[in-house]
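User: Fold both of these, please.

Assistant: Here is the first one.
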Amino acid sequence: MAAMMDLNADLGEGIGDDIAMLQIVSSASIACGGHAGDDQTMRKAIRGALANAVRIGAHPGFEDRDHFGRRRLDLSSETIRSQVVSQTARLVAIATQEGASVSYLKLHGALANMTAEDKTLSHAIFLGVAETFPGMAILALAASAQEAAARSVGLTVITEAYADRAYNPDGLLVPRSQPGAVLEDTAAIVAQCVRLAEEGEIVAFDGTVFRSAASSICLHGDTTGALEHARAVRAALGSRVPT
């Protein structure tokens, strides 16, 4: 039986068409000023989410705007936790001013990849989240160290898969530095999402099939043909997407 499938997108990053994406997705992960974004872009994204009845999430990452948060940094877990908490607090404050709430947190870029592999780092970060924002859920790559760490500190987890990313057999993403890491064919992207929703399966780059309990699919807005891909996925999933 096909499962309901949340669609999320990373917004407020100064790239892509946020207005159009907000008419497609059911959750918006909003950049909090670390890898991208500022008070103005956060406020605009929050207002757009409210207007479209879209769930709001925080999207903190490394404070490395020159590399869009996609460079792995060797920082202490305390420093990273502080960055994540302060960025999230900034978005929460603006959301409160707009009469909105931030219901989940999704880590960005290199930090997301590092924490998907490293439960100790994930635990340190999510412990800070749990202490500061106890009611906030974590949107995390399904079956990753992030998911395990978030659950270990008592946070609710929303498990995620990616519409346009290739997977390793262990369920982690193929690094962007490798050819084919980002899917570009709309039909292939739709097929990956439909198989996940209908069968709970993902096909890795080597043909291996693995099970996935993901309940949310990330639609990137900064890739070539992003809106075409997103609209096609939404149409294919139809009533499986919550409204």
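And the second sequence with its predicted structure:
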Amino acid sequence: MSAQRLRGKSLCVSYEGRRHVLDNVDFQVAEGRLTILLGPNGSGKSTLLKTLARTLDPERGQVLLDGKDIHRTPTRDVARKLGILPQSPTAPEGLTVRELVGMGRFPYQRLWQQWSQEDERAVNDAMSIARVTEFAARPVDALSGGQRQRCWIAMVLAQETELVLLDEPTAFLDLKVQVDLLELLVQLAHVRGRTLLVVLHDLNLAAAYADELVMMRQGRIEHSGSPEAVFTAAHLKQVFDLDANVIRDPHTQRLVCVPTLTGATPLLSATTPVSSASVSLSPT
């Protein structure tokens, strides 16, 4: 497989005459890895993902999928190679999980070729991988936020594409659910060989799970590479205007940013008594 199956060349995108949200961006998605896009609000990360997914048309530049202009490729052909999960998707009321996941088989349907055993297998496999098989007959809108997101991921997996793009898949979810979803995405890349491009907001989760980190600011890619190369105090200050120390977790050795509190008003003074009954310093 090519190391540049999906790439953008000199991409420029703007909204309603405003300044470029993407400003002459060159980008290629690392094959067989989990790449995470980071950046402050308005930096262009979601716009880049949508442009690569053919949801947005660039004013200038082009997106190449397997060497061909993605905007000149038939929709079904693109959908057989590239799956996308937009931010905060919604399903029609009453739609069951199996029906939702089955929508991922749209690229393979024809007037003369309706539902097949191959479609059934793909849907069952996708639900198993995303661990939603037990919910198959339940309405999607009756599930929790984390369960629903797994169902949407299963729908994308049912397309059986090697390339998957996800726009903030962990938004509005509890931390444990976010971690579970990211563990699933890591498994898809490392065990099943999928290529994933994901937009995230949480800096520490991105550093913990990404194979490749990309930091964007004002429509440009500022830094791209391994977490060790990209996730530094200097880069966090430059891109996010965040004063922080970057350390390694002593147990996992993963990188963690800890914001500095210089100038912050302390909650407790040095002479304030602390009751051992109300505060525990034990590790959790």
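The chain has a mean pLDDT of 89.
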